[in-house]
Amino acid sequence: MTRKTSTKLEDIARAAGVSKMTVSRVMRGGTGFSDATRDKVLAEADRLQYLPNRIAATFGSTETSTLVGLCVPRFTSSLFGHVTESIQSNLSRLGYQTVIGSHDQIAKDEELWLKTLAAWRPAGILLAGTRHTPDTIELLKNLSVPVIELWDLTTDPLDMAVGFSHFDCGLTMGRYVAQQGRRQIGYVGAMAGIDTMGRARQHGFEAAMAEADLPLAAKEIAHDHPSFYTGFVGTENILARNPGLDALYYHDDEMAIGGIAYLNRHGIRIKDDIGIAGWGGMEAASILPERLTTTDIPAGALGKVAAEKLVTRLRGDAVDDVTVVATRLIPGNTV
Amino acid sequence: MTRKTSTKLEDIARAAGVSKMTVSRVMRGGTGFSDATRDKVLAEADRLQYLPNRIAATFGSTETSTLVGLCVPRFTSSLFGHVTESIQSNLSRLGYQTVIGSHDQIAKDEELWLKTLAAWRPAGILLAGTRHTPDTIELLKNLSVPVIELWDLTTDPLDMAVGFSHFDCGLTMGRYVAQQGRRQIGYVGAMAGIDTMGRARQHGFEAAMAEADLPLAAKEIAHDHPSFYTGFVGTENILARNPGLDALYYHDDEMAIGGIAYLNRHGIRIKDDIGIAGWGGMEAASILPERLTTTDIPAGALGKVAAEKLVTRLRGDAVDDVTVVATRLIPGNTV
DNA sequence: AGGCAATTTGTTATCGATAACAAATTGCGA
DNA sequence: TCGCAATTTGTTATCGATAACAAATTGCCT
Predict the structure, then answer these.
(1) Which residues of chain A neighbour B262 with C-beta distances below 8 Å?
(2) Which domains does chain A have, with CATH numbers?
């Protein structure tokens, strides 16, 4: 059987007239060699088109690999897209490679992905969400590798966490809506499988209602992924049952925009007839005639913070367990 | 220095009273061992909580790793989100892990990512787009690993390709718009850096115009990423310069929806006053009062086909160099 | 029961780097 | 110019699996 046959350290060593250990030192760029040696080695490496072999390097080293795992519910959501984008580019800048997985809110799928990832001896793991199977938690412990949970901060982190409280997002918005004088308030959500985060916002919103002695007047939750369409239909349904509602809080902006489309089509005036609030600070909302009342989520910043925090920890420096990323209620003009 | 100290094949071998080669055979699940041996080995592996070490396995093998690289322009686009999602879940199902990168249409960034990826001796590479630097092309050749280019089929593939012709999308839509009796037709695009694909659609559209002896009446191209907002503003700009337009073709649905928002706000009737066509079959379009005229792109299917094709090739079976994924013009009701 | 093929199991070398320690060289002050 | 510390370079063992081949065992037919 012919073995793989690309240029290796030994080839460079022979060509440069040094030992391969010296070549290794030069390639890793630390110290322990003269300038003359470095130049000679680099020149030969370049000439021979040396391609580092991280498989062999990781294997030979006591260190972990430079792979970092990232598991999110799905990549088709605008917010997770931004988080993924940001994490990937920041980790890349810091010398790490990103291996992805998605679990669509199914904790068992996250576990299966994690088992596969673990075989690569990753340097760190980033998980979006806080629902994990017992096996996942045990495996993470055994791996003894930094873990950052992204997104929700309402529970204790396994190791580290970066995100914000979804409950507080709902709470703050609930208070705002009540304060604007709305009295017949409904919630329109979507939940395919189990989405703890959307539910946490809903609970926060309900808590605000309770504070104001305003029980939630109606609730409509689609058994589907949040989308423009579920927002459209959810609005139709909730209004059919409760025509007197004067405000609606949505699972996210996408659904809120879907709801607005429904209202527009039926001549119901936003704000005058019914107040609309979303969540997520979705860019699409910029096309609405009036700025949408929503909560802005700094997804890019969140990813950057998470990537940098992980790397800081990997370098042995101290980091806080929990980093809160500030969300911002955008008053807008729809409530 | 203490070495990494998790359970290894040798530990299982000792516990089960066999050689580690036998354990290796059982763990990989082929043949060459008795049922009794297999049960004994698996029981010990389970008891000792064996975690396979793919770093060592890949290193010891003549094979490549089971890592597959995926590089897209960005993860924040709905279509690439779907492609990413589909590729990762299908590759995962087939036993491969996905390492991601993004290049934001900068060919040099793709090259840098590829160099890092190459150090992992990936089993295959998936690239969205067809613009590559000379170094990228040379590196891909030297790696002698399957490469699939996704998305655009207007040029010759480096190795394999899965996608469709953006030129044809534009051409088909152009013919349709002309056939509907539109005569003063404009194009609204967006181009941050260099986006060959959007440009290919534009050129296809212009070719259709030429066929119909209808030179494109106006063109507005934002130096920005396509978005609702650029669609909104682009529409405002193009109509300010050319009030007589009776149809607009947009870079994508997101921009078309932004354009529609502008038209709605200014009392310009869709279809009656001006025809609107998009591209991408974006789910968001489902909220429009009338179904958007657009081209549907089966992003999920494209990812699935690409993943399966790569794996088929990796298993040594023959595959076609080029796989065309069917796009579909949705007549809708906006032109 | 004997003999041969098929199946099961074991042995040794190897992948390409890094770790740990040892040896050689250099630089500089006394 | 000598000697010692600092720097540079080399040597050997090792990481945990798989490849290739060799040996032992089993099963079946005559």
Answers:
(1) 287
(2) 9-52 (1.10.260.40), 67-164+299-326 (3.40.50.2300), 166-296 (3.40.50.2300)
